[in-house]
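Q: Could you write out the predicted structure for this multi-component system? I'm mainly interested in how the pieces pack against one another.
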Amino acid sequence: MSVKIIMAFCFVPIVFLMFGILYFEGKRKGNILLGVTLWPGAEQEKRVQEIRGTYKHAMWFWLAVCLGLFAASCLPRNTSISVSLQLLWLILVMVIFFVPHFSANRKLKEAKWEWLASRVDEAAGGSRPMEDGGRRTEEADETVGRMEAEGRYASETAEAANRRHVDVTAAAQTPPRPFWKAGFAGALLGFVPVLLEPFLVRDSFYGWWTELTLLSLASGGLALLWIMWHFWRMRTDVVSWRSEVNQQVARVRQYQWGRFWCLAVWESTVFLFILWYGMHRPHQLFGITIAGTFVVTVLLLIQMIFTERNIRKAYEAYADKTYWEEAEDEHWLGGIFYYNEKDTRFMVNKRVGVGTTVNLAKTSGKVFMGVACALTAGLLLWAAILLPAYDFVPISLEVADGQVISRQFGQEYAVPVEEIEAVELLTELPSMSKRVGSATDTLYKGSFLDQDYRSCKVCVRVEKPPFVKIITKDGMVFYLNGENEEETRAAYEKILDRRESAGGWGDGFIR
Amino acid sequence: MILTLNFSSEIPIYQQIRNSFVLAIAEGVLVNGERLPTVRALAQEAGVNAMTVNKAYQLLKQEGYIVTDRRNGAVVQCEGKLNEAAWEEMLGTIRLLVAEARLGGVTRQELVAEVEQQYQRLSSSKAEEAARSMGAEAAIGCEPLAER
């Protein structure tokens, strides 16, 4: 049950995050709505308002569906099936909210085409103007207008799509580096535990894993600094014909993102210190890690939302509503994926959502996106398949070829009988905490620490006693059992027989 | 200054960059002493190859519109004088333009009027830019872009 609660804490915020990021695309950002550059007067048009309304309703619908599916995934009694369903649910959540966005983007583009068609018609002295900015009133006019418009629209939008505005004055400015020193200090502080650990603690429970983990996390702080630097170098968005306006918007964006990444570096460092503390409290490490991860994740999400909100406020305040020449709509597939063969940049600002995206026209962009998608989906799918396999593949415990062999999916322990110092049949499993491995409601497998902080190897069905405890001559402790009581007892008896025939037991053995 | 690049045009990108800068200097959008972005910065902003921007800058430098040095980068420095070779080249361009206009049915008066209009526009652009630089943004209705 505790696992389900933890998974709910970890996963449910993700659905709200995905919902929030895309829901607010239904609000104008500069001159862009739902990934489409708006034309003058667009927001007042009835059709645009309908598209926006439908989009928002669809988003709420899918949010309710996702929450309902998550609740349903908690129903199975078996934790591994439940978690497996939730991992598949996560893949759905990452994708589903884009569906109404693609649909709304397509409809808005169609509305824009029709508006452009009406301009073309009027310019050519053609037939009746558009009513209320919406559809034409007669089908014939619509067909003629569209044919003409498509012929001229094709060249007009191709022209617009191949135009790019660059703010030269902004490019000439030396960009400020807000929060650089503070961020750097935070990243450096993260290396303190890495340097102190070998000197302060002689015998760490996790050995060199501790240093490696701390070093990885500290390096993560440097990676966040690199991301901060990259955000500073992002191209200035041209939202107005006036360079000083573009520069001001750029400054706001650099300040907000600089602050976000600086805070992220410090949160990462604080988490590192917490983890360092937890690594010397092995029985509490799992809880500390989960709690720390949850708190840091929630803080980052809240900060991200506020950062994006503040940047949007700047766009709203400064963007020139009459500036709509920036017509890169044709390069944005669904308003989300950027494809422009004439752009040499690898990374560009996102039109929709937060942050940056890659240029899919470049080979490096395709590779990056492909690898990212494959890794994300692949890892989730792999985990979703693996977890039930862990739980449902039977354990086998047997004594063969002079060894006690315990097998379960992906794990095998083989203990030579003559190396056994002591063996005991327990009806209850002592309390222990996981170091490396799996600890579900039904299966404990891997490396654990017992209540005396001794390392032990475990491969047991928790709800199927008894359990065979084996202590080897070199002090290693094993807790093993079979898929049922008969198998466990049979293995235990065989161990006793083999040991007796091998020459008996030493002093102080337990049986 | 907003530079517009047209990737579907027959005019090479470096030439478009050069032409835009020349127009901007003539209109007073860029004034003598104003620093231009570095080659890398402008290439990054425009999403073009740095060699393209470098070629445009070299052309501007040869024609006497900018000066470059390692320390300060590229700076607008237009002396307002054409050398003999440049003037000859310009005359050739004018001859061709006049010939094309004549063949296209444009009258002498129309052509002269258009040239005068362009000169007028450039002169008034310089005056407007001078007023703007004296802090006229508030009059346009934009909040002063002070520290926020």
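A: Regarding packing and overall arrangement: Helices of chain B lie at 13-27, 39-46, 50-63, 84-103, 108-133, 137-140.
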